[in-house]
Amino acid sequence: MEPTHLKKSDPKFTAWSKLDALILQWIYSTLSDVLLARVLDTDITARAASLKIQEIFVNNKHARAVTLETKFINTTLNSCSSFDDYCQTLMDIAEQLRDVDQLVNDSRLVIQMVRGLPIEYDTIAAIINQNKPTWEVARSMIEDEESRISARSNNSRDTVLLHSTTPAQTDSTRSPYPNGYRGRNYDPAKAVRGRGSYRQGGRQGGNNRTPSSTGGRGPSSWNRGLGSNSWGAHY
Length: 235
Hints:
Layout lengths: L10 H19 L3 H7 L6 H14 L1 H14 L8 H17 L6 H10 L6 H10 L3 H30 L23 H6 L26 H4 L12
Helix pairs in contact: 1-3, 4-5
């Protein structure tokens, strides 16, 4: 109470003023930045600040309950910076709902936490909904699942990075011969100019053919890709 019967020059007023300032600082320390801006006043006493806070919360209780309920339902993991931030946000809103006589029990808190999880947590969410654990147990289960998903994601990224850094076959490792041909007397430079010759087996046995035996032309398989219809001069 304010000592209205005391004068400022009275030593009791000085002692009361120090105690009132201490209580007022304690009240300010419990308020959020938004509420603090509405309550903060240079000439206000601890009792006046308490009554002002009561007016803010009690007189607007129903409207505030609706706002907090909507915020509680729409809070998801993707809307928060981390899983710890997500859990803390849900707990803070639940505490504010209790202040306006809207009790949020442990079971409902778990249900809302599971509802706000993204699709990759569907398996653990189904397990939690079936077993109905406490808030702390459910939170630990989701943290373990989060670690597993993170580890799997890192493994997949490392695998993709490994494949992307594997050197591709360069032109220097490819065969200089067309269609993989590596004849003993094959000259690639002459083949490009159309003057090369294939000499498979030399002049031995049945492999030795003359222009007269082929009607003046070499077999088509000998002339394929050589760029010349006359081979006798180069045989």
